[in-house]
Amino acid sequence: MELFNEYKNRYFQCIQNIINDIYNGVKYEEKDIINFFKNNTFNEIEPSLVWQILNKESRNSHKNVDECRRIKLLKENNNNYTLSIDSNIPIRPTKIELRWLKMLIEDPKSKAIIDDTIVKKLTEKLKTIETWNYLDYWIQKNIDKNGDKLEDEKFKSFLKILSTAIQEDKSIKYTSINKKGKLYKDKIGFPYRIEYSIRNNKYRVAVLPIDCDRVIKINVSSFKSIEIMNKIDTKTKDKILNFINSKKNLKNPLVLEVENRFNTVERCFSLFSHYDKEAYIDKEKNKHILKVYYYSFEESEIVRDILSLGSSVIVVEPTSIRNKVIERIRKHFCDG
Question: Rounded to an integer, what distance in angstroms lies between the CA atom of residue 272 and that of residue 133?
Answer without folding.
Answer: 26
